[in-house]
User: Which sequence fits this backbone?
């Protein structure tokens, strides 16, 4: 005997039908399960009409709808404020309850609280589950019961807990999905968006996620050796699928955890970084309001010299590796991790621009934008964060280029105007007389470095 007659499952950043916590529990506990998705007007109205992430979500939902229609079911899709839409749909379908997966971003927490309150008025409950991480919130704490602020001990405690609680596959009983006539999704235009093509190689939905995941598994053992070289196919390129939940984190961690070798174990560490930053945002939600994790840096002054931020955004700094990275971001919506670190550090420590401006630029352009990871990455780079790069360590953008793109292969890919330079000149063209049409360096690294060290030292000694 099942506990509920009808339950809605509200999908958000978990756009799949397999290994899905809310769907797993709903299909176990209800006779009839109806998946719903709300294009959240409060989020969408802040985005430009050509935002590619909305296209990714839309295409992933279309793929989901096709699968559901093959099962004789359908997802209900609406555009509006979830605080009104979810209770209205629960009423319309006489649902006993609504199930969803946790979303621990501050806006989502507040929205879900309001939805739960509205549902309560009609005697319904919002049940929510952990799904997008292995361990969340207070599950991995120090021996003193405090959130970890250093990654290495967090990572060790996380792994110990995984040994005790291996990831489970949360199967979905599709026979419990409600039999419904298929609903047509609203067009992107109905939502106020243009049909903007996704970058080459990004395939949305379950199929795209599985293709990318299968491809990466062939390369997993080489991950540790290749991951730092942006010209090589080293990383997984799965971040967008993790962001929108077209892949299950349990499946990925399950594979990495049971695969011996440096490749899989190094990659598992990256997945743990993802959880480190998510638990951090849960414990310190003020991070989402622009506060530095290290409070003393909230008093830092940022020169923001005129023109610096724009030149960085437009890939015109004169430092080829940084400019190639920024072009990769603009053209593909992706940036290699090494380059995220180099370009972020360059903006903050060479160009002396407030890290929050860079954070916002990445948030606007990254297909995989995730508040916790992006904030964590920026605060790491700006040395204002938790377990961050020490403030006195400043990447040299030319040395980084020589080390991680030694032949200039990546630079040539994104800056064809430099492709004729040999591998000695391509990292610092001004040493070889410069290139017509490509800007000279915006700043002298040695001078900028000295100024930045002085500013950071000032904050450290006066606080
Ligand atoms: C300034 C800056 C901003 C960043 N912004 C984001 C962001 O908005 N969204 C995002 O997903 N990642 C962000 N990262 C982390 C990292 O760069 C990307 O996750 C990674 O490049 C995505 O590519 P991949 O899937 O091929 O990574 P892989 O190397 O294959 O890693 C696998 C997965 O682990 C997670 N991961 C890897 N590195 C990190 C990390 N340092 N912190 C948190 N999670 C990590 C991601 O989910 C990634 O998909 C940022 C890093 C920096 C330095």
Assistant:
């Amino acid at each position: 005997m099942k506990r509920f007659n009808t339950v809605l499952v509200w999908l958000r950043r978990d756009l799949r039908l397999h290994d899905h916590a809310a769907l797993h529990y709903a299909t176990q506990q209800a006779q009839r399960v109806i998946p719903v998705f709300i294009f959240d007007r409060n989020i969408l109205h802040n985005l430009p009409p050509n935002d590619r992430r909305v296209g990714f979500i839309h295409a992933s939902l279309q793929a989901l709808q096709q699968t559901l229609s093959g099962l004789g079911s359908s997802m209900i899709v609406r555009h509006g404020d979830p605080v009104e839409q979810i209770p209205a749909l629960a009423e319309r379908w006489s649902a006993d309850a609504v199930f969803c997966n946790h979303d621990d971003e501050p806006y989502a927490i507040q929205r879900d609280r309001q939805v739960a309150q509205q549902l309560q008025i009609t005697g319904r409950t919002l049940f929510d589950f952990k799904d997008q991480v292995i361990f969340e919130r207070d599950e991995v704490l120090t021996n003193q019961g405090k959130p970890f602020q250093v990654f290495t001990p967090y990572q060790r405690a996380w792994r110990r807990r995984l040994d005790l609680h291996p990831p489970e596959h949360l199967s979905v009983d599709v026979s419990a999905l409600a039999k419904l006539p298929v609903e047509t999704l609203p067009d992107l235009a109905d939502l106020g968006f243009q049909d903007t093509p996704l970058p080459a190689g990004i395939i949305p939905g379950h199929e795209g996620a599985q293709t990318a995941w299968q491809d990466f598994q062939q390369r997993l053992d080489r991950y540790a050796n290749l991951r730092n070289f942006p010209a090589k196919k080293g990383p997984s390129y799965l971040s967008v699928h993790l962001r929108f939940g077209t892949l299950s984190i349990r499946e990925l961690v399950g594979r990495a955890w049971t695969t011996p070798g440096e490749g899989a174990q190094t990659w598992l560490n990256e997945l743990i970084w993802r959880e480190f930053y998510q638990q951090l945002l849960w414990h310190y939600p003020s991070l989402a309001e622009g506060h530095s994790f290290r409070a003393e840096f909230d008093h830092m002054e940022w020169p923001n010299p005129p023109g610096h931020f724009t030149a960085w955004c437009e890939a015109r700094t004169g430092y080829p590796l940084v400019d190639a990275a920024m072009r990769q971001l603009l053209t593909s919506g992706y940036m290699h991790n090494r380059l995220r670190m180099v370009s972020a550090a360059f903006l903050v420590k060479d160009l002396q621009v407030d890290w929050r401006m860079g954070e916002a630029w990445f948030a606007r352009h990254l297909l995989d934008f995730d508040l916790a990871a992006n904030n964590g990455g920026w605060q790491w780079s700006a040395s204002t964060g938790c377990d961050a790069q020490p403030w006195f360590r400043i990447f040299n953008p030319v040395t980084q280029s020589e080390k991680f793109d030694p032949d200039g292969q990546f630079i040539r890919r994104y800056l064809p105007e430099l492709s004729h330079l040999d591998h000695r000149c391509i990292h610092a063209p001004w040493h070889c007389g410069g290139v017509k049409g490509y800007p000279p360096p915006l700043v002298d690294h040695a001078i900028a470095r000295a100024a930045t060290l002085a500013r950071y030292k000032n904050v450290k000694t006066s606080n």
